[in-house]
Amino acid sequence: MKAIVVKPGEKGATLKDVELKETVGENEVKLRTLRVGICGTDRGIVTGKLSFARPPEGADYLVLGHEGLARAEEVGQNVDLKEGDLVVPVVRRGCSKCLNCKIGRQDFCETGEFIEAGIRGMQGFMREEFVDDAKYLVKVPRDLGELAVLAEPLSNVMKAYNELVFVQKRSVWNCDDSTFGCRKATIIGSGPIGQFFAMVFKDNGFKVTVVNRRDPNQIEDKISRVVGYSFVNTSKGLDDVPESDVIVDTSGYPSAFIPLLRKMKRNGVLLLFGTVGGEKAEITSDLITFFVEYNISVIGSVNASKLDFEQGMTFLSVWKSRYNGVLQDMITKVVKPEETQDAILEKEKGSIKTVIEWSK
Ligand SMILES: [Zn+2]
């Protein structure tokens, strides 16, 4: 079958014929790949910047792709899915040693011996078909269709949001009408992850501001109006950034979030989500004093559980009708498998999410 393949130590990704012998066990499903999203992790692997990327044991190549959407074609006898059902596969598979992995929370694996589809130690979803264990498959609601290709990036945002709410139980954080309506969240970065954070916070009652070092492009401007958040260009100054209870960084650049910390309210949270910015930053005693005196929590968050995928799927269904056309607008480009490398390497102005169409 055709697959997008990367080799360790080599840059670039190629469309190749590969032979992967996979049979369908009683708890497994054979899947036809429909769409696979491209993200910064794929870009990091293809450009050789992500050193932890590796093929499965014994293989000399890695099939790329972790934002999958597929259709069930052959279903094992113990599986509660039907032929034709759409599913999204979970990315990370646990170590089977630590307690978190044993209860399906491999996103909190303690040994670090997990594998991740299309990233480290497991073949990914940029291929015509694959077989997977049903316990790692999330069923797509019937009304959502191919927009479910957005479920994987959203699942990571759901997990981070759930962590934040859990950590904030350290004090009373709800407002005097029981909601989060008095709380403000500022999101750094307006890519797909930034947009999803904005929507999740907005739908949980927060007042939301998205910041970038430029003005919004046409699509971002439309999304901000439909969803109902403010967009601030921080290259023009920070005056329009409100005092915030939560600051989420999706950029990975300390120079983007450190200056914003003076907008942080007491008992606030800095949620770090971006990586590989490649910058160095200085931590001063003043900054430490601020974190201490203001009870600031810092949360780093990666990956997501199947529960987070399911929650994300529900949000996508709601947004499909509530934010008319916005999810469709976020998929700014659909490419063929043979265009994958170019699509991964180019970062077109105004693009939000590029997906590869493998099958209809
Ligand atoms: Zn583990």
CATH topology grouping of the largest domain: Quinone Oxidoreductase, Chain A, domain 1
Helical fraction? 25-40%
Count the domains. Answer: 2
CATH class wording of the largest domain: Alpha Beta
Radius of gyration: 21 Å
Which small compounds were modeled alongside the protein? zinc ion
Characterize the main sheet.
7 strands, mixed
Protein name: Glucose 1-dehydrogenase
Enzyme class: oxidoreductase
GO molecular function: D-glucose binding; glucose 1-dehydrogenase (NAD+) activity; glucose 1-dehydrogenase (NADP+) activity; NAD+ binding; NADP+ binding; zinc ion binding
Family: Belongs to the zinc-containing alcohol dehydrogenase family. Glucose 1-dehydrogenase subfamily.
Describe this structure in words.
Its EC number is 1.1.1.47. It catalyses: D-glucose + NADP(+) = D-glucono-1,5-lactone + NADPH + H(+); D-glucose + NAD(+) = D-glucono-1,5-lactone + NADH + H(+). Belongs to the zinc-containing alcohol dehydrogenase family. Glucose 1-dehydrogenase subfamily. The mean pLDDT is 95. The protein folds into two domains: 2-151 and 328-357, Quinone Oxidoreductase, Chain A, domain 1; 172-294, 3-Layer(aba) Sandwich (Rossmann fold), CATH 3.40.50.720. Helix 3 crosses helix 4 (192-203). The longest helix is centred in the middle third of the chain and has 17 residues, at 151-167. The chain is α/β, with parallel strands linked by helices. Strands 3, 5, 6, 10, 11, 18 and 19 form a seven-stranded mixed beta sheet that branches. It has a six-stranded parallel beta sheet with strand order 14-13-12-15-16-17, with helices on one face. It has a three-stranded antiparallel beta sheet with strand order 2-1-4, with no helix packed on it. It has helices at 40-46, 99-102, 151-167, 192-203, 218-227, 254-257, 285-293, 306-322, 326-330, 340-345, and strands at residues 2-6, 14-17, 28-38, 62-63, 67-75, 86-89, 92-93, 115-117, 121-122, 129-133, 137-139, 184-188, 207-212, 230-233, 244-249, 264-272, 297-300, 331-335, 353-357. The structure holds zinc ion (ZN). Residues 94-95, 97-98, 100-101, 106, 109-111, 114 line the site of zinc ion.
